[in-house]
Design goal:
106 residues, 1 helix, rod-shaped
């Protein structure tokens, strides 16, 4: 009878010990799951940040490209301005000649 009691007590303590181990494992699994959720949330935030930065880079690249094209057109624009200045001077000269003719009464 004493052996039976001892065996039952041993089994009880063994079951309690294993129950404690199972509880420890469950807590560890919950901790891992919580950490996993935190990491997934951080990954989602990082992906959003990367997407935002990629959009900014694309916008900046387009702006640089547009500015480069505009800078490349400057020599042509200077040429156009010189041509227009020449035409304005010619027109001014013709206007002065016309005024002189009018004043002289020709």
């Amino acid at each position: 009878m004493e052996n039976d009691t001892r065996t039952i007590e041993d089994r009880f303590f063994e079951v309690e010990r294993r129950r404690g181990e199972i509880e420890d494992i469950r807590r560890e699994a919950e901790d891992i799951e919580n950490e996993s959720r935190k990491i997934e949330a951080q990954i989602t935030r990082d992906e959003a940040e990367i997407e935002h930065l990629e959009k900014r880079i694309q916008k900046g690249s387009k702006t640089i490209s547009d500015n480069t094209r505009a800078i490349e057109q400057i020599p042509n624009l200077r040429e156009d301005i010189e041509t227009l200045n020449g035409l304005i001077a010619w027109q001014d000269n013709r206007s002065k000649q016309a005024n002189t003719i009018i004043k002289r009464g020709y």
